[in-house]
Amino acid sequence: MLGRFPVALRLSRGLLRGSSARRGLSAMAGGGEEGRLADFFEYMERLRNYERSGVPRGAGTDSDDGFDLGRMRRLLRRLGDPHTHFPAVHIAGTKGKGSTAAFLSNIMREQGYNVGCYSSPHLLTIRERISVGNDGGPVPVGLLSDLFDQAKEAIDESIESENGALTHFEAGLGGARDATNVIQSTELAASVITTVGKEHLAALGGSLQSIAIAKSGIIKQGRPVVIGGPFSADIEQIIRDRAFLTQSPVISACDPGIKSITKCIGWDNGKPYQRCDISINISDDVPLSIELCDVNLQLLGDHQCQNAVTASCTALCLRNLGWDISDASIQAGLEETQLPGRSQFLTQEEALVLGLDGASTVLIDGAHTEASAKALSNVIETVRLEGPLALVVGMANDKEHLAFAEQLLVGSRPDVVLLTEASIAGGASRAMPAPSLKEIWMSAARDLGINCVDIGTISGTETPEHIANLATSSSSFAGKPTVMIGCQDKTPFSCDLIRAASQLILESRGRGDASPGLVCVTGSLHVVATVLQHLERH
Fold it and tell me: At a CB cut-off of 8 Å and minimum separation 6, what does 38 contact?
C-alpha cells in the first residue's frame, strides 16, 4: 500500500511544468489593470531570457552542460522554501502536459480543493503562468504585485550572490534540469510523464532516448508515477527503469484494463465537443477503478481523450493515497476543461470581429511539432464536414517545418495554405520567413503527389474582386483539385490574413456551394496569441 498524504492537505500544482488549468477565455484578463505591474515587468525584462534567445545545447540534460538547479534551491531557501509547504503533482512530457494539468486541476477544483498551478508559456499576460484558487484564472494583479514587493529583496540578494546567473525563465524543459524539479519526494504526491517526442532535441541530448532519460528525472523515491503514452517499447523501458531504481509504482494510462472510445461529435452554442466513454480497471500495485459514461470533452481529438485518461488515472492515484475525489468530480472536471489557443473554435461573434461574414468557422491551435500537427489534423477531420479548408501558418525557425507540413497536407488536405511570419519571442532572428515556409510547403505537396499552385504574396488587404479572380484562376489544374499556396508579404502576421483565407476558399468552391468553410490558424502559440489579442482589443 502506498503511503498516504492526509486528506486535509491541499493539492498544489504550483511547481508543475504544464499549461494552466483555467476554464475558459473569461479567465484571461489583461488591459490597463496591468499597469500596476510596470515595475515587475521592467525587472523581469532585465534578466537573461532563454525563451527569446533559445535554450543552450545540453541545458536540459543531467550532465555538466545542464542547468544548475542549485541556484533555484538557494533562491527558494532565501524565500523560506515555500514549495515544501504543500504536496505537488509534477507533470512532464513533450506534448499533453498542459491538457493533462488542466484536466487534473479542474477535477480537484470540482472536489472543492484550492489548487495552484504554474505553467508556461502564456498567451496574453504573464499572469497566466500562475493560477491560484477555485476559479483557475490568472493570478490577480494585486496579489502578484504584493508578492513581488515581498520577494524582491531576496531575489536581488540571490542575483548578486549568483553573479547574475538567475534568468527570466530557467530551463523550462520539463525534466531533470528543469527549474521546477526542485521538488523532493517528501513534497511530491505523484509524477506524470505524458509523452516523449523530438522537441528540444539539442537541449535534451539529441535523441528520443536522451529525452526520455531527462523526462524521467522528475520521478522521485517511493512516489508513484503515471505514464501517459503510448510509448515505444524502448522509451517506456527507460521510464520504468528509472521508476525501478526509485522504487516508484508505475501506473500506465495505456494499461490493457483501460478502455476509451469516442462515441460521437456534438455541437453546443456553435462549438464542438466529443462524447466519450472511459473505463479504467487496473489491479496491479496501485489498483484503480472507474466507469465514466457520456463524458462531453471540449478538448477534441484522440490525443485529448488519452490526456483525459491520464488525468483520470492521476486523480484515482491520488484517491488511492487518501485524497477525497469522487467519480462525479472527475467527470465534471474533465467536461469543464478548455484551453485557449489549443483546438479552440471561435464563436460566431468572435469570427465577426475578425471580419468574417459567418460563412467560415475559425479554429486556432498552437501546434508546432510533427506530433501536434498530426493531432490537429485528427481534430480537423473529426469536425470537418464537406466544406473547404484553409490553413494560416506561422512558425519559429527551429521547428520541423517539412514534417509539420506533411502531416497537415496528408491528413486534412487543405484547399488553401497561407504562410506568414510569426512574431516570435526573440524577434525576427527566431521567426521563419514566410517565403521560406512557402517553399517548404510547395516541396512537401509535390513530394506527396498533391497538385499545388503558387499564388504569390497575399497581404490580406486585397479587394474581394482580386481574391475572386485569384481563386478562379488557381483553384484547379488540368481539372484536378489544387492546393493554393501563398504567403504574406514582408509584414508580420495580421488577422487580415484570416479574412483573405476565408474569401479564397469560398471563392475557390464557388458561391453555389453552401458548405461552410473552416480556417485554421496554427504553427505557433505566438500567432494564436495575436488572434486573441485582436479579439481582446475589439
Answer: none
